[in-house]
Amino acid sequence: MMKENKKGFTLVELIVVLAIISVLGVTVGLSMTKLSQNTKDNNNETIMKEVLSSAQAYCMLASKKSKCTNGANITIKTLVENGNLDEKIYDKVNPAKKDNIKFLESDVVKITIDSSNKFKDYYYECSSKKYKLSTIDNCTNSKNASEKCKWGVC
């Protein structure tokens, strides 16, 4: 009589374990990719909200109200010089621009006032494209945040 050796795994058992590990690896990889994109969109949204709130604060000052008329342009340089925006903005990548270009002094926030003269809209303009800053809230919470926010189109 021959003694059977029961130490070890069969080939089928090893293949099943490898298949399970592969499926788990792919699932984790896809989750991390989505998480990374959401983090980037949140950061982009925060930077553009910072620019918006700086422009709004600039226009709220009584001495600056005459400079915030319909069609007015406010440069990033103006916001920094008036203390509404930290000069570290120049170190940040501008989410509106392609190729990881940083904010420039000449970048512009454009003001549009509706016909009733009650509501101001703030747009970040570049290459004839506009980001409506006042509606950028929660764009990262949508299903297709990257499409909705359209970062990096300039």
Key structural traits:
154 residues; alpha+beta; four-stranded antiparallel sheet; 3 helices
Account of the 3D structure:
The protein has helices at 11-60, 76-81, 145-149, and strands at residues 73-75, 108-113, 120-126, 129-132. It is of the alpha+beta class. It has a four-stranded antiparallel sheet with strand order 1-2-3-4. β2 (108-113) and β3 (120-126) form a beta hairpin. The N and C termini lie far apart (80 Å). Residues 142-147 have low confidence and may be disordered.
Name the strands of the widest sheet in spatial order. Answer: 1-2-3-4
Strand content: 5-15%
Q: Overall mean pLDDT score?
A: 77
Biggest pleated-sheet summary: 4 strands, antiparallel
DSSP helical segment count: 3
Anisotropy-based shape? rod-shaped
Helix-strand sequence: HEHEEEH
Helix content: 25-40%
**Structural category:** alpha+beta
Oligomer: single chain
- Model regions low in confidence, pLDDT < 50 over at least 5 residues: 142-147
Q: What is the end-to-end distance?
A: 80 Å
SS elements, strand count: 4
Rg for CA atoms: 26 Å
